Amino acid sequence: MTLAAPPTVPAAPRAAVGVRATARVSAATSGGTTTLPVLDGDGPFELRRLRSRGTEARVCVVGAMSAPLGGDRLRIEATAQQGAALHITSAAATLALRGPTTEPATYDVQLTVEEHAELHWLPKPLICAAGSNLRQTWTIHLAPTARLVLREEQILGRTGEPPGHVATRLTVRRAGRTLLDQEAEYGPGAPGWDGPAVLAGHRATGQLLVVDPAFENRPPEVQLLGDSPQDGQAVLTPLAGPAALATATAPDALRLRHLLDTAHT
């Protein structure tokens, strides 16, 4: 007698670890000013309207919980529709922490700026605490007449602690063509990140990207900003397109912001 094999019981689906959240902002023009038809917070993202400045709509991202932690999947999508002016900031620094899993957290930002629109993405810094592991991306789509100001800052470790790990990628496409595509990685496990060719012992680094059609006729000149390498320095360079990129390293967040603000002015 042949015995039938017992029926196979499907394995229970693996429970997702971490928070999944997507926040959305959309700016449009109405009556000569910019309105916010979409302002949808989610998970750790609470979105608040700030007082308008001229024709510009302003939004503040407020952290509603500790995030990103290991295993979190976070995303912000922002669109400045044709002719709109949108400014996005944050209420405080973003703190990446060790999570309940060894999986990295992801924090994706997708920005779209349509014809004759302008978007300023100027949040507070990202602090990568000891034991954290974060992958952060910016994917940006610009129309030919769009303007963009984007600042991103990473502080590697809180005072008196070793740094966490962060890998970033910034991809900018203008009129469907790649304007900038770069990657960086810092912290434990990233080869050479603390050496003289990268951060040279500093714990703060960041960039300021400005895309402006006016640069097609008058591109900015290359400049070295900062008095000495020990106190931090920045390099401002034009890109192969109507854009300029300032890259800075500094011993702390205060001097990093000073360098990037100097580049902006």
UniProtKB/TrEMBL annotation:
The keyword Cytoplasm applies. Pfam families: UreD. The keyword Acetylation does not apply. InterPro entries: UreD. Keywords: Chaperone, Cytoplasm, Nickel insertion. It is found in: Cytoplasm. HAMAP family: UreD. Required for maturation of urease via the functional incorporation of the urease nickel metallocenter. UreD, UreF and UreG form a complex that acts as a GTP-hydrolysis-dependent molecular chaperone, activating the urease apoprotein by helping to assemble the nickel containing metallocenter of UreC. The UreE protein probably delivers the nickel. Belongs to the UreD family. This is Urease accessory protein UreD. The gene is ureD.
